[in-house]
Amino acid sequence: MVKTLEWTDEGVVFIDQTKLPTEEVYVTCQNYEEVAEAIRTMIVRGAPAIGVAAAMGIALGVRDLKTHNLSEFRRSFGEICRVMGATRPTAVNLFWAIRRMQAKFEALSSSSLTAAKQGLIDEAQRMYTEDIAANEAMGRNGAVLMPASGGVLTHCNAGALATAGYGTALGVIRAAVESGKKLHVFADETRPFLQGARLTAWELMKDGIPTTLISDNMAGYIMAQGKIGAVIVGADRIAANGDTANKIGTYSVAILAKEHGIPFYVAAPFSTVDLETPNGSKIPIEQRASTEVTHLAGKQIAPTGVNVENPAFDVTPAKYIAAIITERGVARAPFAESLLKLTGD
Questions:
Q1: Residues noted as catalytic
Q2: N or C: which end of the chain has fewer CB within 10 A?
Q3: Domains of the chain, CATH where assigned
């Protein structure tokens, strides 16, 4: 399994996802600013991976603080968290991770600064381990929903590369294949950043799982041919009512699936569920650079000066979602009730 990120004495090591699939390059971020830039520039991407990366970035920043004064330490810690929070606004796991590190800091505030630093490093590493365990549990919970054989469509990359390891949507597919199901994955290319073409196809081929890459506008045609038995995607934020933000183009796939009577599943750790956000209209949508649309591999493909819209995500209304798969269990409509039950409250 590919190692998406890793804590080391030299810094946080990431596989550079902007270089895949042609180059397998690893970069070491030696300070928290470099980790923030890696998140911002999508060297690391995928909501669960962003959360763990942010926690490690905060731990790295804290480790390097030279002050022995608690008030200065607290002020610097707040600035590190602020920088991390400004990187990717849609991925709720980012803010979940920051809040968890802040809570750990408060719990350690009466300890020595040396103990506080080590405690925050340990917390970030604990989040890494927990994420892998959550993905494996999610895989087991979702594998039973996959067809015994045939095609499964996915959009964007929700695999090991989007998490600390194993994956969310691809983790469900991996678990289904490991259980003996004979699946063939159709991977949308996922314009404009091509996460499906560059990352999902690469991951699945490394695992030996049969994969066919299609352009985004082929999904309806492939469904109409009867080649798809289920659709499964990841998520960057799930509102309390089940509305789900995922990579741009997911909404269109969900509508197509509904039209063709194909179940549409979302797989995400429970940390992606944002019960404070009532519905999808309240989810902030990240806008990215126009050059991602006007250029391909550094080559201009659109007229100079053309107006461009480039939202990184869209929101799929809950009515199109058959189930939301988490490590805590599977939620079904009405999601406002079933998601709340998974909190255990």
A1: 236
A2: C
A3: 5-136 (1.20.120.420), 144-341 (3.40.50.10470)
Interval 240-267 mean pLDDT? 98
Which strands, in side-by-side order, build the sheet including 244-247?
273-274, 237-239, 244-247, 313-316
Model pTM score: 0.94
Structure tokens at 178: 């490991």
Q: Which region holds residue 191: left if phi is over 0, alpha if psi is between -120 and 50, else beta?
A: beta
3-state secondary structure of 168: coil
The model's pLDDT over 183-227, given as tens digits with 9 standing for 90+, comes to: 999 999 999 999 999 999 999 999 999 999 999 999 999 999 999
Please choose, from the candidates 185, 244, 191, 245, the residue with its C-alpha nearest in 3D space to the C-alpha of residue 216: 191
Q: Where are the beta strands (DSSP E) in 202-263?
A: 211-214, 228-233, 237-239, 244-247
